[in-house]
Design a protein that fits this description.
The protein is mainly α. It is built from 2 helices and 2 strands; from the N terminus they run ββαα.
Length: 120
């Protein structure tokens, strides 16, 4: 069994489980990468101010400018929220991989200790 894999004996009572920690780490990396893209998008979109009067100086143009400005701000906030969520998901996947790996290492050490003490 590869390091970090958790596998219980299905012949025993209880739930059999296999955890592919490599996939958890890979998913975390992809989530962090997506978060960086969302952050870059928010930063670039946020740098593009919509100048007053850019659509004209008449009332309909001003109303359109207000609507576009509101949508623009909403999109920036949405990208920032996506970045936060994707970063959190990546962190949770990383912590899960570490937790499963550490648990497997502790359990393997306990099994080795039991085997060694039963040979004496």
């Amino acid at each position: 069994m590869a390091k970090g894999e958790v596998k219980l004996d299905p012949a025993k009572k209880g739930v059999a489980m296999f955890v592919d920690t490599g996939s958890l780490v890979s998913g975390a990396d992809k989530s962090h990468s997506a978060a960086a893209h969302a952050r870059d998008g928010a930063d670039q979109l946020g740098r593009g101010p919509l100048a007053s009067g850019m659509f004209g100086g008449f009332p309909a143009a001003e109303a359109f400018h207000d609507a576009v400005s509101a949508a623009h701000a909403t999109h920036v906030r949405s990208l920032q929220a996506h970045e936060e969520t994707l970063t959190a998901i990546g962190g949770k996947a990383e912590r899960a991989a570490v937790g499963f790996t550490e648990m497997e290492e502790r359990n393997a050490a306990k099994l080795r200790a039991v085997r060694c003490s039963s040979n004496t």
